[in-house]
Anti-sigma K factor RskA C-terminal domain-containing protein (Rufibacter radiotolerans), 276 residues
Amino acid sequence: MNTQEYIDSGVLELYAAGGLTHQESREVEDMAARYPEVRIALEDCLRSMEAYALIHAQAPRPELEERIIQHIRSVAGPSTEPVSAEEANVVPMVTPEAEETSLKRWWQIAAVILLVISAAANVYLYNNLRTTRSELASTRQSVRQYALQVNQLEQRSLQSENQLGMLRNPQTMAVQLKGVPKHTDAQARVYWNQETKEVYMDPSSLPAAPAGKQYQLWALAKGKPIDAGLVKSVDSTLQRMKQVQEAQAFAVTLEPEGGSVNPTMEEMYVMGNASL
């Protein structure tokens, strides 16, 4: 695991929230001492946790305060009865042992109070940390999806600009492919740039290919067929095909899926001459 993966694992947030064992905390401190980027990330987590605790700090519930007072009273013992003025002048002798016992009792009370407050704060902060981490993960996923969508839109926009520029190029020839006698309703259009040799095809007017079959574009040069590429789908309006160096005509045949080396003439659907 590299340092970035270690930082993204969430162990630094758990350390800041006090959710690790002593051994796990030692491991985090060792990583922070060895790698400056881990130390910086840990310091950020500690500062964020401190700021979060200050922002979201809440006063203890009234019933918690009452429970603490009752506990103090039970530890300190019952209150004494009122005394007369004469009795008030009597100064009782307190032994050092009694003073030490009383001091220990008050330290125990303070320790209990701090323990209760610390436990409540840790539970509260841990629950909020889990919620924050969940929200952060959801936000990161949304950002990734948004970035992917933006990238896809940019790619489509660039592709559309390239296609539009090719179609507007004076060197681009539009070849209308008409249906042969067996398929009079079929049509297609080929755009061939005689300078760059790029070829685009609009197959949207072809009938859907049967299962296991696929349309294939051919360029006819000096009486020989040249493979110009397979038609991916007739649902698309414009598809980029293979470059064609020379052509007197274009034709489309129906071939087995994956295409053929030579066209199946009996399965020709459309054809058109490439002439100015």
Notes: The first helix runs from residue 3 to 8. The two ends are 64 Å apart (CA to CA).
